[in-house]
Write a structure and sequence with these properties.
One of its GO terms (molecular function) is translation initiation factor activity. This is Eukaryotic translation initiation factor 5A. Belongs to the eIF-5A family. With 159 residues, the chain is mainly β. It folds into two domains: 69 residues, Roll (SH3 type barrels), CATH 2.30.30.30; 73 residues, OB fold (Dihydrolipoamide Acetyltransferase, E2P). It is 8% helix and 53% strand. The chain has a five-stranded antiparallel sheet, with helices on one face. A four-stranded antiparallel sheet has the order 2-3-4-5, with no helix packed on it. The chain has a two-stranded antiparallel ribbon with strand order 1-6. A hairpin with a 2-residue loop joins β2 and β3. The longest helix has 12 residues. It is elongated, with a radius of gyration of 21 Å. The protein starts with 18 loop residues before the first strand and ends with a strand.
């Protein structure tokens, strides 16, 4: 045994905690899956039986939860797929800055200032209009694989 102390510094994030493995054959519609490194919501799953010595294959059609792009993947049903940890958190909207960032109130009483306004025109307009009218707004923030985006809006009444 040596008396030396070893210190390891990790500069890279392995990304292991952002996803977990799940067998392809058990992933269902409305579930989540990682396709081409993007977190997606499954909109269609079809399973094909293959030949004598082949595996059954799952064909996934999914929509990227942040960009709304359609992605497809075919995976043997016995293989593992990455499934993203997807969280939804509600925050109260405090302010909208000139450069498109929002200021949100967290449950602990602090503020979260690193989120941009959503790119979805309809949602963007609802947030801006509601904020201009002085309504108390609560936004739902979806987070997965190190990305966050405002995905929904609730009006909890006037101030």
């Amino acid at each position: 045994m040596s008396d030396e102390e070893h210190h390891f510094e990790s500069k890279a994030d392995a990304g292991a905690s952002k996803t977990y493995p799940q067998q392809a054959g058990t992933i269902r519609k409305n579930g989540y899956i990682v396709i081409k490194g993007r977190p997606c919501k499954v909109v269609e799953v079809s399973t094909s039986k293959t030949g004598k010595h082949g595996h059954a294959k799952c064909h996934f059609v999914a929509i990227d939860i942040f960009t709304a792009k359609k992605l497809e993947d075919i995976v043997p049903s016995s293989h593992n797929c990455d499934v993203p940890h997807v969280n939804r958190t509600d925050y109260q909207l405090i302010d909208i800055s000139e450069d498109g960032f929002v200021s949100l109130l967290t449950d602990s009483g602090g503020t979260k200032d690193d989120l941009r306004l959503p790119t979805d025109e309809n949602l963007l307009q609802q947030i801006k209009d509601g904020f201009a009218e002085g309504k108390d707004l609560v936004v739902s923030v979806m987070s997965a694989m190190g990305e966050e985006q405002i995905c929904a809006l609730k009006d909890i009444g006037p101030k």
